[in-house]
Specification:
The chain is about 65% helix and about 10% strand. By secondary structure, the chain is mostly helical. It folds into 2 domains: about 15-40 and about 115-155, no CATH class; about 40-115, Winged helix-like DNA-binding domain superfamily/Winged helix DNA-binding domain (Arc Repressor Mutant, subunit A, Orthogonal Bundle). Its main location: cytoplasm.
Amino acid sequence: MTGTTSERLPHVLDDKMCFALYAASRAVTALYRPLLDEMGLTYPQFLVLLVLGDGPEEGVAVKELGAALHLDYGTMTPLLKRLEANGLVRRQRRTDDERTVQITMTEKGAGLRERSDGIFASAGDAMALEPEEFARTLATLRRLTTNVTAYANRRD
């Protein structure tokens, strides 16, 4: 028999959206990983700094941050504790509502956030999409996320 194993295997995954999304996510994450490793950040930590960097100066409530990142409270708490231990964010209870924990970025966190801007250029170059194709793909992915999330919420 000739050809590589992958050439001989059935291409059952070729037309599966779930696999295409999984493979693309892994490829993009692998692209980001060495760039983030240089800064001592994981991808979720990087996302937190992005949201805080573009958020209001008074910070963002943990609940709002979790919603923006599509992460639950149980995932957010250890993530934020690690960022705080590294001096990148500050967690404080709001004075007007002690139940709400507000997250603000420290100067050290802001410095890393600024350094991260080059990551987007690197990722964009690697994706090699024309601007219109990039915009369409992003819009489709956002719509897909909204639709699937709404469907899952109806089932719960």
